Amino acid sequence: MKKNFGDSIANKVYEYRVLAKLSQKELANAVGVSKQTIFVMEKGNYVPSMLLAFRIADFFNVEVTDIFTYLKGNDQHDN
After folding, report:
1. Which residue has the higher pLDDT, 77 or 63?
2. Is residue 19 in a domain?
3. What keywords are assigned to this protein (predicted)?
4. What Cα–Cα distance (Å) separates residue 41 from each residue in 3, 33, 47?
């Protein structure tokens, strides 16, 4: 059986972007993705690749863990 851990990644992309007075499009261009990617990431509906997470952190000159937080879920079994 495949395990469903229920893990997720929370992020502070919105907060960092607003503090930097950037539009979603400006941040997207800076890190090489679409505006839609930034939009869904800020809404919590998209978990970025490690590469993108590092690009975003590098852009804001912070550690990845300052922006992205691992939220450990429960170890459950799919039926």
Report:
1. 63
2. yes
3. DNA-binding
4. 24, 11, 6
